[in-house]
């Protein structure tokens, strides 16, 4: 039986993104119409790994009441168990196993997407967790390491376990972020697995999210980069799904979102330049999306102080920006 959320509304999930989906970003999203659930950026599991203060801060102090899963990335089952035992003390929806990270420096350590070449290790990690801890296990996977032809065998391994959800980023590990997404494999996963299946990859608008659900019969969508450039995408998806007018953010909405993000850097022991860099990684995707042919992205990329960043954003969003209908 699917959770209530799956039955009555369009289920949305914020994709984990290392360095971007921090507690502060999640807290800021709360005011934009948040997703139904969050997955943390990966926590690296290795022989000396511990549950970091960032993860504890996230589970203890986040503003949202929506579900939160903690993602783990590693390869040693016994260390997954050690970390999971600590996580049992917190309110966590699931432990999410990263079987998709394509970054070469991660892959070299035999973790993330590389686990898709050693499916017995995935089995061992899921088994040790399922047999010893109470937190449900979910998996975020790509559709193969080198080729999508591997997907059937990946699914046959996932089918051996009781999983709470499988998130399918519908491209291969070798395809990094450039290979076209093929949602046909989400459809195949949905038909094969008996747990909820969530579609992920290159979903850029609320309308695309709805189309993907219709095409694949998936139980929901997971959205990453588009939620950074358009933090209202979850709200818009839910509005469109309910056949109402999707929210159109004004320049003031964008400006206020950026100011809120900025407020989190206040009081932190960072230089002004570091604070500016920490905000730019969110503002650059916004600038690219709202002014693809204009100067706003050019100026944001080059800004070095918080005051200049505020002035450039104010000048664009309060004086110039006109939302597309
Ligand atoms: C900067 C960045 C960091 C990411 N970090 C993670 C991560 O920690 N764990 C993970 O499973 N996927 C990670 N991903 C992949 C995303 O979760 C997602 O699967 C991918 O971006 C495709 O979805 P999208 O097109 O909606 O962004 C990351 C992606 C980006 C761009």
If you had to describe this structure to a student in words, what would you say it looks like?
This protein has 2 domains: 4-241, Aldolase class I (TIM Barrel, Alpha-Beta Barrel), CATH 3.20.20; 251-320. The protein is 45% helix and 12% strand. It is an alpha/beta fold. It has an 8-stranded parallel β-barrel with strand order 1-2-4-5-6-7-8-9, surrounded by 5 helices. The radius of gyration is 20 Å and the shape is globular. The chain is built from 15 helices and 9 strands. The model is unreliable at 1-8 (pLDDT under 50). The protein has helices at 4-8, 23-29, 53-61, 77-87, 104-107, 119-132, 151-158, 184-192, 206-216, 225-229, 233-241, 251-263, 272-290, 296-302, 306-320, and strands at residues 11-14, 37-39, 43-44, 67-73, 95-99, 137-142, 165-169, 197-200, 220-223. The longest helix has 19 residues, at 272-290. The chain binds flavin mononucleotide. Flavin mononucleotide is lined by residues 15-20, 41-42, 71, 98, 100-101, 140, 169, 200-203, 223-226.
In the predicted model, the low-confidence regions spanning at least 5 consecutive residues are 1-8
Q: What's the β-strand tally?
A: 9
Using the 3D structure, state the CATH architecture of the largest domain.
Alpha-Beta Barrel
Structural class: alpha/beta
**In CATH terms, what is the fold-level topology of the largest domain?**
TIM Barrel
Number of H- or I-type helical stretches = 15
């Amino acid at each position: 039986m699917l959770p209530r959320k799956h039955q009555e509304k369009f289920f949305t999930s914020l994709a984990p993104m290392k360095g971007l989906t921090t507690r502060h970003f999640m807290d800021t999203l709360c005011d934009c119409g948040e997703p139904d659930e969050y997955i943390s950026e990966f926590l690296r599991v290795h022989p000396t790994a511990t549950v970091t203060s960032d993860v504890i801060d996230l589970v203890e102090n986040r503003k949202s009441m929506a579900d939160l899963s903690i993602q783990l990335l590693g390869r040693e089952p016994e260390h997954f168990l050690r970390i999971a035992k600590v996580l049992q003390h917190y309110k966590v929806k699931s432990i999410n196993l990263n079987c998709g990270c394509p970054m070469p420096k991660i892959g070299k350590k035999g973790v993330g997407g590389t686990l898709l070449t050693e499916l017995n290790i995935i089995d061992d990690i899921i088994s040790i967790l399922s047999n010893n801890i109470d937190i449900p296990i979910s998996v975020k996977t790509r559709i193969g390491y080198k080729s999508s032809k591997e997907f059937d065998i990946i699914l046959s391994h996932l089918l051996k376990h009781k999983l709470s959800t499988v998130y399918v980023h519908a491209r291969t590990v070798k395809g990094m972020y450039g290979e076209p997404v093929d949602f046909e494999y989400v459809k195949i996963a949905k038909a094969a697995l008996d747990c909820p299946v969530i579609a992920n990859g290159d979903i850029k608008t609320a309308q695309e999210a709805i189309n993907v659900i219709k095409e694949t019969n998936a139980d929901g969508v997971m959205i990453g980069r588009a939620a950074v450039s358009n933090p209202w995408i979850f709200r818009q998806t839910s509005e469109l799904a309910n056949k109402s007018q999707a929210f159109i953010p004004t320049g003031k909405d964008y400006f206020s979102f950026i100011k809120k993000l900025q407020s989190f850097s206040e009081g932190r022991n960072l230089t002004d330049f570091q604070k500016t860099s920490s905000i730019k990684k969110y503002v650059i995707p916004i600038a690219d999306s709202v002014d693809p042919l204009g100067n706003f992205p050019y100026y944001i990329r080059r800004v070095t102080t918080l005051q200049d960043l505020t002035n450039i954003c104010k000048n664009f969003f309060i004086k110039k920006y006109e939302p597309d209908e």
